[in-house]
Amino acid sequence: SLSQPYKAMEFLWMKYDFSKAFSASAIFMNLDLQNKIDSSVAHLQTFGGNLFYKKDKVNLMATYYYQTGNNPLKNTASIKTNAWMAAVKADYNFSKKAGFGIGSDYLSGRDMNAQSSKVTSFNTLYGTQHKFYGLMDYFYSASAHDNVGLWDSYLNFYANPSENFSGQISLHHFEAPSTIINYSGSKANSSLGNEADISFNYSVKKDVKLSGGYSEMFTNTSMKYVKNILPSQTMKPLQNWIWISVNITPSILIFKSKTTP
Asked: Which of 23, 96, 179, 195 could form a cystine bridge with 17, CB 3.0-4.6 A?
């Protein structure tokens, strides 16, 4: 199973506002994970924080997290963990109705030809995976892509021309920060592919919202290696999906009759 049930969790979260524009947050979390094979317990620690700056039309954010301790995914609690992630993001609003953002997320991975048993792939744990790394969920949500990590650089363009409508276009470039090995055992290109996402939200009325989008993935050959696709199998260089949803959130009112004595 790819699920991550934990035996115990402890965490400490702090936030401090240096000024109206600048703030920082930090977290320390320990997970006690029990191995289902030998019942051993591993202790995985994740700690790091965020820096926020927001003033006028500019919104900046920086993130860093480090993981250490043990990890039972290899059927033993003695395997050490040494993994990390970092991210930076900048948004600029042209006006109240339009803006753009640029950012990059880097998550450490493991070389496909690595000999050490040490865990160097950052574990995103219980994050909101669909929010990051492209809407087609090629990474972390659906599979670990052979634990090679991920370097996601992106551009966002967003607009809300009216109170009822908002839209966004996102462009992603995906690289593997670790070594990829092809079928012949040689080092392959680190580029995994590019993705374009278009999404929108439209308020039909107060309690009814229409959402939808279209995504296109332009895969490179190395994507086939990290997805463990057999040499005899083919992978389409262009893959896409379209989605639409209607969200109805009615307000339910309960009236209490008043009685006079």
From this structure: 23
